[in-house]
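User: When convenient, might I ask for sequence and structure tokens for a protein?

AI:
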Amino acid sequence: MKTLDLRGLKCPLPVLKTRRRLSALAPGETIEVACTDPLSAIDLPNLVRETGDLLESQARADGALVFVIRKAGA
């Protein structure tokens, strides 16, 4: 699983950087994204809906929102 640490970044950077990294993944690969921007709780699930990928989990850990996203197509 790949990781993307976006702690400290504010909207829209977490979504833009996640979109870029998702486009580089092969189908079936997963990425764990950690964000501290509270809007990420809304923005990242919306991004996943737009791209058609799968949000496998969303949780809080170490003061961050942590998302696990699987690239669609596998």
